[in-house]
């Protein structure tokens, strides 16, 4: 198992190109199952989760080709089975995203039930209840969701909780349903909007993307199209935090500044100077130590849970005391325990972390437990005395493209060692 070694103490300086968004490309690849013809998806990030999704589609018989610029051509017309097996779903929960499209387009789906994961129980009841309300017959047997429907019917759905992949699954299913579907309390995340834009380019009739009410007028078929995936706001935010923590200056390119409002406000509160253009963000910390920033995670447009761990890392070396409250997932402070081993002063009380900043952390061997936790441990390594060894970095390869190359480009001391 590969490990990363980070030699801390250098301020990051320079430009970094932001990749396509993991959380947008995964539903968009699932949406290709709805098309009657080939689709070309551009700005695809080179990530383990993308490889897993391609393997998943490939097992179903879908034809896929990737060119040297990571554009993926998907031809779903060769599909011969509607199954998402356990061995793939257990490595990537977002595999559940094929459920809605398979059911809507092919009338059946057999998708392994994703289990719990390091950050909480993560049920999929809202996905299943929504599809059942649209007329699907759904059984859960032997760890698999088995769903059938002749043709889904439009329905009014009021989601109990704001769920990103739940909204996406139901949105995709509604595109080919008979009649109108209204999804209330829908997720407003930019990745949901990106999926809706892709579906519209395929001929879907969707209104209200980016609001909490989506209205979908079902059509009888969707066609192929070419679509370019949105930039990754979480990757962008992670590099900006790296700049802020190290007292450096970082410019993120090919990004989507409008999707980062809540994160940029917190970085300014930490004392960073931020400049924004159409597709770039520059952060300058001018050699200073960040100030402590308190926050609470919540669905978009509030502060994203996927940036929580990185802000815990920032606060470990900030001036002052911060409280960070996690409201989206129940168990998302595993990184805090690892950071304590690096000398961070963090106390966890229920779903809140209370962090008293120290001037520097001390290197220690640490273990990544999930995707964003691993990013935060790398950030902590950047401000530690000595060499930090981060183990189990397969988590980071699921969601960050070439992280060590990009950080090295900014002047960080980081290298991968085969384990
Ligand atoms: C997506 C993102 C993930 C992000 C999360 C929250 C993808 C591929 N992943 O995950 O990076 O951290 O949104 O922004 O886009 N819930 C239920 N029942 C359900 C579904 C969800 O109770 O049927 C609960 C979850 O347990 C959680 C909350 O709703 O507490 C939000 O989860 P959800 O938005 O569904 O997360 P994902 O879509 O899995």
Automatic annotation (TrEMBL):
Chain sites annotated for binding phosphoenolpyruvate: 22-23
Q: Which residues form the signal peptide?
A: none
Domain Enolpyruvate transferase, residue spans: 7-407
Query: What are the subcellular locations of this protein?
Result: Cytoplasm
List the catalytic residues: 117
What's a BP term from Gene Ontology annotated to this protein? cell wall organization
What does the record give as its pathway?
Cell wall biogenesis; peptidoglycan biosynthesis
A GO molecular function for this record? UDP-N-acetylglucosamine 1-carboxyvinyltransferase activity
Alphabetical keyword list: Cell cycle, Cell division, Cell shape, Cell wall biogenesis/degradation, Cytoplasm, Peptidoglycan synthesis, Pyruvate, Transferase
The text of the family note is: Belongs to the EPSP synthase family. MurA subfamily.
Q: Which purpose does this protein serve, as stated in its record? A: Cell wall formation. Adds enolpyruvyl to UDP-N-acetylglucosamine.
Annotated HAMAP family: MurA
* Name listed for the protein in its UniProt record: UDP-N-acetylglucosamine 1-carboxyvinyltransferase
Organism of derivation = Ectothiorhodospira magna
